Amino acid sequence: MDKRQQGKRTSKDLQLDHFRTDDRNKKLTTNQGLKMAEDEHSLTAGDRGPTLMEDFHFREKMTHFDHERIPERVVHARGFGMHGEFEAYESMEDYTKAAFLSEKGKKTPVFARISTVVGQRGSTDIPRDVRGFAVKFYTDEGNYDLVGNNMPIFFIQDGIKFPDLVHAIKPEPHNEIPQATGAHDTFWDFVANNQETANQVMWLMSPRALPRSYSMMEGFSINTFRFVNAKGEARFVRFHWKPVLGVHSFEWDEAQKVTGNDPDFNRRELWTNIEMGNYPEWELGVQMIEEKDEFNFDFDILDATKFWPEEEIPVKIIGKMTLNRNVDNFFAETEQAAFHPGHVVPGIDFSNDPLLQARLFSYTDTQLIRLGGPNFHELPINRPVCPFHNNQRDGYGRQTINVGNVSYHKNSLADNTPSPASEEEGGYVHYQEKVEGRKVRARSDSFKDHFSQARMFWNSLADFEKMHIIEAFSFEIGKVKNQNVRQQVIDMFANVDRDMAMAVAKNINANPPKGNHVQYDKKSPAVSMADTVRKPQTRRAGIIVGEGFDGNGLGDVLDKLKEAGITADFISERQGTIKGQDGYKAEANQTFTTTNAVLYDGLIIAGGTGENAMKFKMNASEFINDTFKHYKTVGVTEGGKELFAQSMAQEGPGVIMAGARGDFGKALVESFARYKHYERKF
Q1: Number of structural domains the chain divides into
Q2: Alpha-carbon gap, residue 320 to 513, rounded angstroms
Q3: Is the pTM of this model over 0.85?
Q4: Domain that residue 568 falls in
Q5: Rounded to 5 degrees, what angle do the CA atoms 129, 160, 290 make?
Q6: Is residue 8 part of a domain?
Q7: Radius of gyration of the CA atoms of the chain, in A
Q8: 430 in a domain, yes or no?
Q9: Catalytic residues
Q10: Are 291 and 166 in the same domain?
């Protein structure tokens, strides 16, 4: 009996003893008690072939996992949904017969749901986590769901291990702690003992795990699909969402403070901008590989723990999604939205990616328990815009009123209708692929390199991203109580970069790592956030004003900020009218109490004072220090220089002093557009 079971025993405890079990030091079995010889790989036709339906162990394991939570999603529980449209840039008929991609300018309504993965519905928007990025296209041929994440890879190669991953990263079962984070023993124990996670964990420790805004993060399909054109020609394809505003992130210290001030920050920011007409936009891109080139890379293109380097396989931009309407009812739309990578249209097909094969089973199974039965497709948010006709009947939540006596195929009473559609009539025809091999629970040797791409990711990053990763590892592993697990993780990530592992080991008082990193010198500059598109739209500026502030030129600054799409709040010791030196009046809508520096993308210091001069200076200094510490813009008017001098901030990159440049407002806009100024040295 462990410590948490000690204490006074009750009759209820004795009653439950019959049901308690300790799995330690036992052999793995199915729920029927059958001992299993393999729990790493699904049963497939050949080591790179499709998963077989007769795999009872996979089906039992995944079915049980999909039904573990009622009614909240097991993963991706905290999500935010928005309506919009997708517009094709050009015809893609040479590559796919998907109708929504067949014509330049063709528009398709969409619903997108962005989510964290680990936390429960009531958790914060800004944990260190992967973000789900799911888009439902309501096409003329039926619904197409593009279901991915904000990182191009995943932790595992085979979906049979997904329940294990989530069990490990979720709060530990004895105390339901910690919430919405992997900074605990079981997750890092899983990582150290399942080293295929290395690439994804590197991305998870990077700034990508803390997006500044949902509109400033990428989206990826992760899995490998196929495009098939009208001639029956197929290409392997992966999908990308490229944010028009670029890719930007929080610092870890900043994210924790934002969470404390506004745990709904990301969803509030997106909701507010859509209401204001600042619609978030992403361009859709595809990477395509000819079938003849399937084996021409130093990684397996079906391995979901590997990304396709854009320098080797270019991204072709084919359209743009604009999210332009918030939901009317969160539950009816966002919470009841049901996505599934198996919801495809003619021209889009599957590969033998073993993670994808598992998802094709799991998603429908999940909706059955979460939405109460097989008719979840009839809920308004999930209902296709085109009519649907089949012989399915009854069940929980049925809304269709079917007329007639016939609900079977084949029939003569209804002239054998509804009848299958030929390929020429738009009927879906699966791509014909030759499949052969022995039934095995194994994985191709081409899946066994777990560190080369993780090393390439590290090689490709800017210095600030590398420092972020070291600090993230130090925080996360520093929370692990088991010293053996700590050391295992240090030794594992020495395979990625020994110096990185050495730095983390020093920070958490672990032994220096064993071994050295893999010899892999390739880079993929596209994975770095350092050179993404920078636009100032939707940025937020805080303007600190006290009685007697410097209003000279502030009107021009506000005009330039507004023209650039930057919103501004006046912040003071109290709300209401604050009078400046020259008669300029500012309406303070925020105070040092109602807001925080971390909720803004930069500050403008206009000076002045308050009734309690010392308290005003202390509050202003705290705002300035946090803004400067997090590499953001600090603008200083002539009257604000005294307040700035009393802070810990110093002149340098991203600090815009009035009078130092000809156009103070223009310089501020350019600085806000850059967002972070990592060239600052502390």
Answers
A1: 3
A2: 46
A3: yes
A4: 540-674
A5: 85
A6: no
A7: 28
A8: no
A9: 76, 149
A10: yes
